[in-house]
Amino acid sequence: MKADTVTKDFMSDTSVFADVFNYYVYGGEQVILPECLVERDPGEIALPYGSDERTVPVQRFRDVQKLYAAMTDGKTEYVLYGVENQSSIHYAMAVKNDLYDALDYAAQVEETARSHRKDRKEGRILGKKVSSGEFLGGFWKEDRLIPSVTVTVYFGADEWDGPLSLFDMMDVTDARILSHMDNYHVRLIAPALMPDEEIMKLQSNLREVLLFIKYSKDKEKIDEILKRNEGRFRDLERRAADVIEVVTNTGLKYDEKEMRVDMCQAIQEMRQESEQIGEKRGKKIGERIGEKRGKKIGERIGEKRGKEIGEQQGELKSAQRSARSFYKMGLKVEQIAEGIGYDVETVKEWLNL
């Protein structure tokens, strides 16, 4: 499984998606209701430079985008919410998200102009007097844009060290220049930059995902958060478990057909398997080392024993030669045996007596 695919699938869940913006926009207050979110095609198509006869299409794709509609003060208000999932740090995130929002607004202008043209052609707004400015842009004075809010969710344990605004990407210090420019800020959710109490404001399984990622490199801390949040980790949605596994590469074992995962058990089984693999590898390594050392020891013992045997055989041959020489000189067998240090019977065998 690829991280981009898994995180996109996870973030597409309306409960998780609403949780992101309830945290970021409303500080954890449950304002955005999942049932008020409408799926929107993430393909951005804007035609800001042409007309129906001559167009210059621009297309970009968001990870996940939804339209929120809610009643406020007796009227329906709309907001476009978009999420960009990042498994690695993107050092041009400010430009990327700025472009997405700009394309959203350009698309709204073009769609509004197209709608007005269609209404005029079909005679539904015969009484409307269109000014030259309205006719030129296709966007009328009373028309309004739907706000677009983009949040980047970074699924990584490292601290985000990329620029967090458009100005951060520039090397301009002249305040007079900057005062005539619009800055764009990256709205970022990154576990390493969030205190635990901030992560705990999340209500969906995104809470457990970010907690686990944040401490994924610290075994003792992982055990601590599993124990502290045992109830939720023992009944984790499988898509959340998939994100944890793919992002942290922990090696968790669980049935992918099941909709809920007991993370505490999965981690325990993973560790037991790792220990067994470690023991098995250690045994093989130990056997290889033992064989190697045993061979060296055997060689040393063999050399030593061979040397001893050689010396003994040399001494024996020397004694036999001496016995024959002494016998030829007329010495008695008993005298020869005593002189060379062997028993009489052995000396007789040498002399064929």
How would you explain this protein's 3D organization?
- With 353 residues, this protein is an alpha/beta fold.
- The chain has 2 domains: 3-217, no CATH class; 278-350.
- It has 13 helices and 9 strands.
- It has helices at 3-11, 14-26, 93-121, 132-137, 175-178, 196-199, 206-214, 219-228, 230-233, 238-248, 263-328, 333-340, 344-350, and strands at residues 37-39, 43-46, 58-61, 64-72, 75-86, 148-154, 188-189, 236-237, 260-261.
- The strands form 3 sheets. Strands 1-4-5-6-7 form a 5-stranded mixed beta sheet, sandwiched between helices. Strands 2-3 form a two-stranded antiparallel sheet.
- Helix 7 runs parallel beside helix 10 and helix 12 (333-340) packs across helix 13.
- The radius of gyration is 42 Å and the shape is rod-shaped.
- The termini are far apart.
Q: What's the gyration radius in Å?
A: 42 Å
Shape: rod-shaped
Total of DSSP H or I helical runs spanning 4+ residues: 13
**Physical arrangement of strands within the biggest beta sheet:** 1-4-5-6-7
Low-confidence stretches: 46-56
Q: What class would the helix/strand composition place it in?
A: alpha/beta
Instruction: Report, as a whole number of angstroms, the end-to-end distance.
Output: 92 Å
Care to count the β-strands? 9
Main sheet, how many strands, which sense, barrel? Answer: 5 strands, mixed
How much of the residues is beta strand, in percent? 5-15%
Order of helices and strands: HHEEEEEHHEHEHHHHEHEHHH
Tell me, rounded to a whole number, the average pLDDT. Answer: 83
Helical amount: 40-55%
Task: Please give the domain count.
Answer: 2
